[in-house]
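Lab channel / #folding
Pinned by the channel admin:
"Please post every new chain as: sequence first, then the structure tokens as a reply. Keep commentary short and put observations after the output so the thread stays searchable."

First post following the new format, from NK:
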Amino acid sequence: MDRIKTMKAPARPIRRATLHHSAVEELRAMILDGELPPGVRVPEVQLCEQLGISRTPLREALRVLSSEGLVELRPHRGAIVAPVDPGEIGAIFEVMDALERLAGTLACRNGSDAEFAKLDRMHDQLVTQHEAGSVPPTS
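Reply from TO:
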């Protein structure tokens, strides 16, 4: 009994990714990369084969993506990738503008010369890759 009392509690619970969590990540990347373009019906059978999963985890993943607004679930007709609303694009760019402005301000206020030198090197590498037509892998 004393041995149990002296055991240190784990820093955090150990979690194993479920199939539908992995499917959510894969499908989200496919949508954001344009592999599954807006307005297109989600090909469930093909995706099940491609991802090596059954329809249950795929449908659970689609429900998650639906709650994120990336997919529209249509009863008895499957799912489609959510179409882009042109009216929302302006608002999205306004938010992006504000966030980028804030990020720049904070970087200038808090960044060191060494950090800015590192950013310059990274930028030079990106320019070189762009000019060579190299596309970085998606994560």
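NK: The mean pLDDT is 85.
TO: also worth noting, The CA atoms of residues 43 and 79 lie 8 Å apart.
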